[in-house]
Design a protein that fits this description.
single chain, 511 residues, mainly beta, five-stranded antiparallel sheet, five-stranded mixed sheet, globular
Amino acid sequence: MSLNRTTLSLIAALVALAAVTGVASLTAPAAGSDGEREAARLPVQRTSLVCPQPASSDLANTTYTGYSAPSESGDADGEDAAAGLLPARRTLDGGQGEEESEKEKKPKPLLALKKPGTPLVHETDRADAPALTGSAEGVLAPGWTVQQTTSISAGPGRGLLGVNCTAPDTDFWFTGVSTAEGRHDYVHLTNPDKAPATVDLQVYGKDGELRTDSGTGLNVPGGATIPVLLSTLTAKPATNVSLNVAVRAGRVGAQIQAVDEELGSDWIAASARSEERLVLPGIPADATGVRLVAHATGGKDAELAVKFAGPTSSISPAGNETLHVKSGMTTAVDLKNLTRGEAGSLVLEPSEGGSGSPVVATLRVLRGKGEKQETAFIPATEPVTSRATAAGSEGEDSSLSLVAPAGTAKVRVTASAGSEGGKPVKKTYTLKAGTTRLVDDLRPDGAEGHFAYTVERLSGGPVHLARTVKAKGSGSAKDVPMFTVQTYADDRSTVAVPGARQDLTVLNGGG
């Protein structure tokens, strides 16, 4: 059988489809009925990540933890396996000024993993620590994750700042940001590629789009990162606003560093967008303040039912059973004593008879009181359809929140070996529909150093995941209950390759 241009085009299309979320190793799928080849899920062969520039403080200490979960086959070897991060160049003046002229020797990759299953840690106290970009290949690529956590003991940015390094993309939505006095929010834009990227920033408040000229057509040079202060984008200060990062050319990583002069600081990750259900997991039991900020991105208003999924059931918070979000506008509501002393998650769904519209949302969560408060942000997250991994856990101060918003689900959680020793431990949990399961007692056997949690969805309904890290303050912040919460979607460690008929002449007209 000859392979003409049509056949070659089909093969090229399959390769391109596999590269949408990662590059897959293409092997022949299993044969199905009637001579057709069924779609197969194959491991990705390359994964890219971007870590933003940490807080620039002389009192900052940043820890990076890299991890790649082992495959089901247990294959930990591969000649093509490689993983590592390199510093990005920093540009000034929102990407319009000169690049730093100082030449440095080519640095060695950080977090250069050798095999799956063992976390690797890098720490730095540099006030000018750079943003990082890099990739993992071969058996290290599926599920490769890097956690960046910074502790700042004093000053207006004091707190525990955590962010899960993310894949570069072309569209991001953030809510819960601010351009008001007392808040200093920067969006960090990092271009991992050689070609320049062109980015538009648009801010939306309670009355809709806020006029901005300086956020249009930002140039992010290849291999560079730029921080943009959001208050420079609008003429009037505004709290509880939303930001859309739209990439016209190329791709970038985008994260927001939110600094509150009174309430500490943390990173804000991009929100998932949905017109069906939004889940914001990981609200701690001792939260002293919970504020929901939502934005309707579509052409219609959204009428949402608000529920708190606790350890035993879901309830509607009194006085805030529903939320109306106007199209193109940002709405904020304080949920006050939402948790009533129980850890849980917020679930937003179209109310009965209400109109649906794509919505993004984020929670600002407070712990502590008065001058000893600390802030964390929880964006809506996509479900874990197969597997997700949270790296960078340590000691007894890490916990998981597992949410089953619709239907009972079964998951398996693995606490990996520690970066300095120990053996992995696994445990299976059954999640009741409409509840949040707090996992705060699963640790590696004889764990030393940092470890990772890997969550595998085995059966049942959708599952959403968040990981909380707590820390004790030091110095003037010794009584501040520092914490940070990261959400985790599916790691997309495999891609589906569509099947094709064994006899490709059918597709070629018999040629």
